[in-house]
Specification:
alpha+beta; single chain; 417 residues; globular; four-stranded antiparallel beta sheet; four-stranded mixed beta sheet
Length: 417
C-alpha cells in the first residue's frame, strides 16, 4: 500500500475506539466479569484469607461457591456446564482472586486450568459428558499429577508406569509429588478426580511414551501418601503426595491414545503458565496498592515517606513494572487460542517476567512498610511468601529461559513482529 494511502486509511480509522481500548477489559462482558469477581473476592475471599493461610486450611466450602458463579468451568463450553469464555476471562479470574488470596487462587487454577480445561480440550465425548458437569459445579474437585519425588521439569524422566493387563484394564504404579488439590482436607481425602501422566512404554525412537489417565477417588490403589505442611507460601491450598499402588482403572480412563500425552501436555502448559502469570499480576497489583497508600499515610521526619527519594524509587519502579506486566499478560491472553497450541514463546516469556517482578514488587512493599510489612496484618508478607512459588511451579524460570532462547533460535523474526 502506498504511504499516502496508508496514512489516509489510518486517518479514516475510528481512533476513538483505539484510544479508549482497555487491553485488560477488551469487551463489556470482560469488564462485567471482573467487577463480579472483584465484588465476590472483597466480600467472601478477603475476610478468610489470613486465617486459612495461618492454619494451612483449604476453604472447601468457599471453593465450591465458585461453581455457583460459573468460574470453575470458565473456559468449558456451555453444553458441559461451563461458562464458555476465553483466555482473557481466565486471566481476569486468576488475577482478581490472587490479589486477595493467592493460596486459594492456586487451588482454583489447579482445578479450573490443570484439570477442567485439560479435560474440555482433550477428553473423549464420554469423559467430558460424564465428568465436566461435576467439576464445573464444584461437586468434584480436580487435580493434575505430573511432578514426582525425583522428577519435575524433566517430564520424560518420570517413573510412574501404566501397564495394560490382558483383561483390558490398566495398572498404574508410582508416586506423584507437590500435587495441588491432591488432598482436599487434613484427613487425606484424595481429590475427587485427577489427571495423571504415566509411562506406557517407549516409542520407535527409544523415547519414553507418556499417556494420560483420569483417575477417580475410589479407584483401587489410589490414595494420599501425605499432605505437605510447613510450606513457605500458598498455605491456603493443599499440596499432597499421591500414591498409585497397583491402581486399577478401566480402558475408559485413558485420554486419547497411548503415547499421546506430550502434545496436549504442552498445549495446556500454555494456559497454565499464562494464568500463573495472571496470579503474579494480582500479587503485584495488591502489593503496589498497599505500599502506595501506606507511603501517603506514614510520616517520618515531619513528612509523608513518599517524599523521600528511596521510597519514590520503590513505588515508581513497581508501578512501571506492574504496567508492563499487565500489558504483556493481557496481550498474550488476547493471542492465545485455547483450541490450538503454538504460543509457547510468550506463555513462557510472560511467566518468566511476571513471576519475578511480582516477587520483587512484594519485597519492595515490605521495605516501604518496614516492621508493619513483616507481620501478617498488613498482607504484603503473605503476598511475598506466596509469590516465590510462581518462579518454580508450572515450569521453573530457568526452563522458561531455555525455551525462549530455543524458540527464538528457530524463529528469529519473532523479535521484529
Amino acid at each position: 500500500m502506498p504511504h499516502r494511502v496508508l496514512l489516509f486509511a489510518l486517518h479514516e480509522y475510528d481512533m476513538d475506539d483505539w484510544q479508549t481500548f482497555d487491553i485488560g477489559n477488551p469487551t463489556e462482558e470482560h469488564a462485567m466479569l471482573r467487577e463480579m469477581i472483584r465484588d465476590f473476592v472483597q466480600e467472601e475471599v478477603e475476610p478468610q484469607a489470613h486465617e486459612h493461610d495461618k492454619h494451612e486450611k483449604f476453604n472447601v466450602d468457599l471453593f465450591r461457591q465458585l461453581g455457583d458463579y460459573g468460574l470453575l468451568g470458565i473456559t468449558v463450553p456451555e453444553e458441559y456446564g461451563g461458562a464458555g469464555l476465553d483466555a482473557t476471562a481466565a486471566v481476569i479470574a486468576n488475577e482478581e482472586i490472587s490479589a486477595s488470596d493467592p493460596g486459594f487462587g492456586l487451588a482454583y487454577l489447579a482445578h479450573s486450568m490443570l484439570f477442567v480445561n485439560n479435560l474440555a480440550q482433550n477428553g473423549s465425548e464420554e469423559q467430558k459428558t460424564r465428568i465436566l458437569p461435576k467439576v464445573c459445579s464444584g461437586e468434584w474437585i480436580g487435580a493434575m499429577a505430573m511432578s514426582e519425588p525425583n522428577y519435575g521439569t524433566d517430564v520424560l524422566g518420570m517413573e510412574t508406569t501404566a501397564e495394560l493387563n490382558s483383561d483390558g484394564n490398566w495398572v498404574i504404579n508410582g508416586n506423584k509429588m507437590w500435587i495441588t488439590n491432591g488432598s482436599i482436607d487434613d484427613e487425606r481425602t484424595p481429590a475427587d478426580v485427577v489427571w495423571v501422566y504415566a509411562r506406557t512404554g517407549v516409542d520407535d525412537r527409544g523415547r519414553p511414551q507418556l499417556s494420560t489417565f483420569i483417575i477417580e477417588n475410589g479407584a483401587p490403589g489410589y490414595s494420599v501418601g501425605q499432605k505437605i505442611y510447613d510450606k513457605t507460601g500458598m498455605r491456603a491450598s493443599n499440596t499432597a503426595e499421591l500414591v498409585f499402588a497397583d491402581c486399577i482403572v478401566g480402558p475408559e480412563a485413558l485420554v486419547g491414545s497411548p503415547g499421546s500425552s506430550i502434545h496436549h501436555m504442552m498445549k495446556n502448559l500454555e494456559i497454565e503458565r499464562l494464568t500463573l502469570a495472571a496470579m503474579s499480576l494480582g500479587i503485584a497489583r495488591r502489593s503496589l496498592d498497599i505500599m502506595n497508600r501506606y507511603a501517603s499515610d506514614r510520616v517520618a521526619f515531619g513528612k509523608p515517606i513518599r517524599s523521600f527519594g528511596q521510597m519514590q524509587r520503590y513505588i515508581g519502579e513497581s508501578y512501571a513494572e506492574y504496567r508492563a506486566m499487565r500489558a504483556y499478560v493481557y496481550d498474550t491472553a488476547r493471542l492465545l487460542d485455547l483450541n490450538e497450541g503454538g504460543q509457547r514463546l510468550d506463555s513462557d516469556g510472560v511467566k518468566l517476567y511476571a513471576t519475578t517482578k511480582a516477587k520483587e514488587i512484594a519485597d519492595r512493599a515490605i521495605q516501604v512498610l518496614g516492621g508493619y510489612g513483616y507481620v501478617a496484618e498488613y498482607v504484603v508478607e503473605r503476598l511475598w511468601r506466596d509469590s516465590k512459588l510462581m518462579e518454580i511451579g508450572g515450569g521453573t524460570i530457568e526452563s522458561h529461559q531455555k525455551n525462549i532462547t530455543r524458540d527464538l533460535a528457530k524463529d528469529p523474526d519473532a523479535v521484529n513482529r
